Structure formats: C-alpha cells, structure tokens
Design the sequence.
C-alpha cells in the first residue's frame, strides 16, 4: 500500500523534529514535560506541517499511552463517547491519549463534552489547531490545558528535512542523485514553512526526474515547476487572513512602502483582491486623512481600476495606491474625531437638537415655529457664532487639528475668520 513520503519520514524522536527549538530544544519546557512522562492536557497551535501531529505521536510513544486520533472537521461527540465506552475494557495501564485535530471545528457543546473526561483524568487531551486558540477554543478547555505555539519553519530548518528526504529516497530507490543546490534551496524556501509540502515536492521530483541511467537529476526548473504557486498559508476566514491585512495596514501607517508592497503581494498571491482593496481604502481615511485629502479619491480610483481589471493586472493600480499611502504625510485626526463622537452617542449623550438646527415644521396646525437659525452665508467669511451641539455637549471637542501642513492651514484660516468677528 502506498505511503506518502512525508508520513514515511515522520520523526520518531524529538531530536528529529525541525524548527521548534523554542519548545522542543534541549532544556525547553515542552521537551522537559514530555521527558518527565507526566503529560497534562495540551493545545498545540500553529500552521500546517510544523510538527503538531508528529509531537503528539511521540508523546504517546514516550508515555506508553494508547493513542486515539480524531479530526474535529469530521468527528462528532458520538466518536468521543465510543472511545470512552471502551476505557474500562481496553488494556491501557498508562491511560489514554486523545489527539483531536482542528479542535476549532468543534462547537461549544461538542467541546464541553470533553470536559468530564479530561477533568477526571480518564483521557489526556492533545488538541491541535491552525487558529489562535484564545479565539476559537472555549475557556473551559483553555483553563484545563497548557498551550504551546508551533512556529512556521525557516527555510534553513526546512532544508534539513529536504536533505533528509533526498538522501532517504536515493537509498530507498537505489539511485544516484544530481541535485542543483538552487533547486533544493528553492524547495525549502517556497513551501511557506510547511515541511510536509517540501517533502511532498521531493517525492514528486524523484518520480518525475528518474533517468534510464539510474540517476535522478533535480534541476531548478523542475523544482519551480512542482511549486509554481506559493505555498504560503492563507485562509480568508482564519488568522492568516487577519494577520496579512493587519500587517498591510500597519506598514502603510508606519510609512514603509517596501513592507506594504510585500503584504499586498501576499494578499494578491492568495487571490484576496477584495481584502486588499478594502484595507487600502480604509487606510486612506484612517491613517492619511486630512494630511493629504486627495489621497482617498486617488486610492478610490486605483481600487476601481483594480476591480475592473482583475488579477493579475490589478496589482498595478493597487501597488500605486499602496506606495502613495505609505509615502504620504499621516494624520489620524479623522478616526480620532469620529470615534470620540461615536463614543458619546453610544453612551447616550445625544440630547435634544438645538432649536435653530431643527427642520422648519409646525408645532400645531398652521403655525410654524420661530427658530432663529442664522444662515452663515449671510455673514462675513461665511461664518457666524451659533450653537450647533446639543445643550449637554456644548464645549465638547471631537476633532483636533493634526500637525500637518493642510490641517494647520485650515486651523489658521478659521482662527483668522473667527477673530475678525
């Protein structure tokens, strides 16, 4: 029966797990917990292909516990109850370890089903998730578990796995290997930190590049062919989406055009054109605002062009917009002003409309109210002193002029007009 190379080479020892030295290196906390033999309920989170399942297997082996595996995307509470029903009859002197993959796919009720069994120690839970557990796992489970983050592997760490896979396949197939250094480097760097993807690429290359003379020649062109599309992790509903758009916004706000272009490229490579457009439009008002008022109209034109063009051409107007926003002067006076106003409104600080601002209407049949509204255009400078805020908010300041050239010129203009009254 066929066994994928990634599964065939799955590490059996902690020393064979690459790229997680912060938790599994010599003296690291998770390593010490595993070596102690007394393993608590654990939650592993991080991208795919970083070793979560592998480490769960090693824990089961090291602690000599009977291992059950479930995937929350397809499992149900009935599957958990089936495991529990066997506890009294099965031979498991050291207890049972349940590895529940993708726990975020379990709803609250399903997760709560686990509580009774992990509380009394009948089952030791190791749950894994690609999402942030603090958002997707319910507090009752979190409070009974210790959380460890598995990080995306660096190209250098992945390269170790690639070299191991190449050597293993050469020995298994009894062939010679001629591999371009650039090809192996490309495989390690293009998998998005996912060891499984890198090892799968090696397996495909050995299948496709075998020559009649018994030599496997791995070239850069072939390596690029098996990894044409970037393997970066991306899920429009998951953490990676929000991390990507957050990084784009913060790079624009931080006036770093190179970083902003990088995160834009990641969004576009993932095909998330709407997500990129939305954040760029938002930044034009949130981070540039009145420091460069024309930015929002220019960016809107770029976004409209991008949506009309579609990918890949959409990258051009969006790159133009990103560079413009990243290099433009910055002001957050707009977002601060509206947020202050929204805060008061939500707190119930509305108050009656000043009579002068109300729409002209009758208090009773045939009688219009005398409102006393002063029409600003009838006065010098198109301004006249008049109350606009409700009585309970008179004197409140929401908008404060930014320290950029445009807003300071507006401030000076109105100070001059009001002082001439």
Sequence:
């Amino acid at each position: 029966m066929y066994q994928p190379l990634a599964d065939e080479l799955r590490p059996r020892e902690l020393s064979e797990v690459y790229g997680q030295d912060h938790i599994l290196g010599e003296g690291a906390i998770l390593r010490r917990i595993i070596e102690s033999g007394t393993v608590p309920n654990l939650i592993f989170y991080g991208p795919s292909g970083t070793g979560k399942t592998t480490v769960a297997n090693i824990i089961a082996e090291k602690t000599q516990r009977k291992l059950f595996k479930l995937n929350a995307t397809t499992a149900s509470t009935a599957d958990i109850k089936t495991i529990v029903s066997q506890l009294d009859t099965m031979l498991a002197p050291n207890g049972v370890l349940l590895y529940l993959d993708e726990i975020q796919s379990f709803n609250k009720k399903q997760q709560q089903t686990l509580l009774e069994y992990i509380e009394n120690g009948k089952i030791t839970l190791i749950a894994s998730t690609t999402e942030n557990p603090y958002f997707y796992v319910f507090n009752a489970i979190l409070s009974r578990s210790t959380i460890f983050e598995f990080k995306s592997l660096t190209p250098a760490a992945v390269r170790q796995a690639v070299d191991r896979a190449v050597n293993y396949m050469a020995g298994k197939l009894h062939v010679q290997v001629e591999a371009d250094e650039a090809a192996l480097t490309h495989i390690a760097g293009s998998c998005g930190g996912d060891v499984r993807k890198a090892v799968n690429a090696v397996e495909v290359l050995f299948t496709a590049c075998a020559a009649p003379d018994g030599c496997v020649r791995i070239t850069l062109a072939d390596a690029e062919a098996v990894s044409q599309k970037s393997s970066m992790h991306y899920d429009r509903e998951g953490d990676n989406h929000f991390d990507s758009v957050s990084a784009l916004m913060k790079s624009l706000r931080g006036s770093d055009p190179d970083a902003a272009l990088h995160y834009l490229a990641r969004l576009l490579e993932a095909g998330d054109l709407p997500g990129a457009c939305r954040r760029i439009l938002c930044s034009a008002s949130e981070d540039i605002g009145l420091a460069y008022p024309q930015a929002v109209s220019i960016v809107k034109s770029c976004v409209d062009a991008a949506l009309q063009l579609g990918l890949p051409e959409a990258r051009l107007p969006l790159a133009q917009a990103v560079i413009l926003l990243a290099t433009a002067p910055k002001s957050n006076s707009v977002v601060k002003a509206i947020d202050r106003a929204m805060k008061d409104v939500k707190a119930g600080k509305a108050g009656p409309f000043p009579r002068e601002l109300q729409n002209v209407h009758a208090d009773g049949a045939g009688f219009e109210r005398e409102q006393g509204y002063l029409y600003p255009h009838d006065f010098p400078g198109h301004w006249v002193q008049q109350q606009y805020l409700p009585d309970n908010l008179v004197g409140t300041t929401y908008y404060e002029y930014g320290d950029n050239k445009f807003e300071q010129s507006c401030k000076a203009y109105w100070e001059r007009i009001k002082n001439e009254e």
